[in-house]
Amino acid sequence: MSKQIKADLMLMLVTLCWGVSYLLMDICLSEIGPLTLNAYRFLIAFFAAVALAFTKLKNVNKITLKYSAVIGLALTLVYIGVTYGVMYTSLSNAGFLCALTVVITPILTFLIKKETPNKKLILVLLLCLIGIALMTLNEQLKPALGDVLCIMCAFAYAVDLIIADTAVHKEEVNAFQLGVYQLGFTGLYILILALVLETPVLPVEPSVWASMLFLAVFCTGVAFIVQVIAQQYTSATHVGVIFALEPVFAAVAAFFFAGERLLPRAYLGAVLMLLGIFIMEIDMKSLFNRKRASEVLDLEDSEE
C-alpha cells in the first residue's frame, strides 16, 4: 500500500470524526454558545496535545508558527461559518454548502498554483458534487444568512487546505508542530471573540460534557494533526474530494443516533460519492498491468 493511499485512509477517518461532529455540536449548542463551544473545543485539543507531546513542541521555528497563525485565521472563519450556519439554515442546506469545499479546492488550486486537474479527477469531482446535491439539497434552497455563512465556511476551508498543503511541503515546517499550534491559534482567536460577543459558561449536563470532549480530542485535536501530517503524502485536491464523504458519515450518525431517515435519492447520492472515492483511489492502469504481468508469469510457468 502506497504512502498516498495510507494518507488518504487516515483522512477518511478524520472525515468520519467530522461527520459525527454535526450531531455532537447540536447537543452542545443546547447549553453553550457557538463561539464558546469552539473556543473550548480548540483550546482543550491544544493543551491536551501539548501535555502529551511537549518535548516535540518546545523547539518550534518562526516559519512553522507563522503558518500556524495564518491557518488558525482560516479555521476561525471555517468554524464561525459552520456553527452559525447550522443555527440559521437547515441541516440539508448546511451539509451541501459546507461540502462545496470539494469543488472550491481544485478551482482555487488551479487559480493559485496553475495545477490543472486531470480528467479522472474532474469525473470524481462531478460525481461528488452530484452526490452531495442528491443527498442534502432540498427543493426549497433559498439564500439566507446561514447559507451565506456555510459558503464562507467552504471557501475558508478550501483556503486552509491549500495553505496547509503549501506549508507541509516546506523543509522548514514541522507538520506535527503545525498541526498542534494551529489549534492553539484558532482557540485563542475564537476565545477573544467569545469574550467580546458571548458570556462563556461551562456545560452542565454530562452528555454535553462528553460531546464537547469528544469534539475537542478526536474531532479537533487528533483530526487536524492527522490532516496536516497526511497532507505531506497526498494533494490538497485529493483531501477536498475525501472530505466530500463528510455528509455521508453525518447522515449515518443521524440515522443511528438521531433517528433521521433519508430520501431514496439521498442514498443514491451517498453511493455516487463512494463511487467517486473508489475511482480516485484505485489506479486501474496499475491493476490492469499487474494482472497482465501475473497472467504472463502463469503462462510461462505452465510452459515450463
Report what the structure shows.
This protein has 304 residues and is mostly helical. Helix content is 80%, strand content 0%. The chain has 14 helices and no strands. It is globular and about 75 Å long. The relative contact order is 0.20.
Question: Brief description of this entry?
Answer:
The chain has 304 residues and is mostly helical. It is built from 14 helices and no strands.
SSE layout and pairing:
Layout: H1 3-28, H2 34-52, H3 54-57, H4 62-88, H5 91-98, H6 101-113, H7 119-136, H8 145-168, H9 175-197, H10 206-230, H11 236-242, H12 246-257, H13 264-281, H14 284-303
Order of helix and strand elements from N to C terminus: HHHHHHHHHHHHHH
Number of helices: 14
Q: Which blocks of ≥5 consecutive residues have pLDDT under 50?
A: none
Largest sheet: none
Rg value:
21 Å
Estimated helix fraction: over 70%
Describe the structure using short key phrases.
14 helices; mainly alpha; single chain; globular; 304 residues
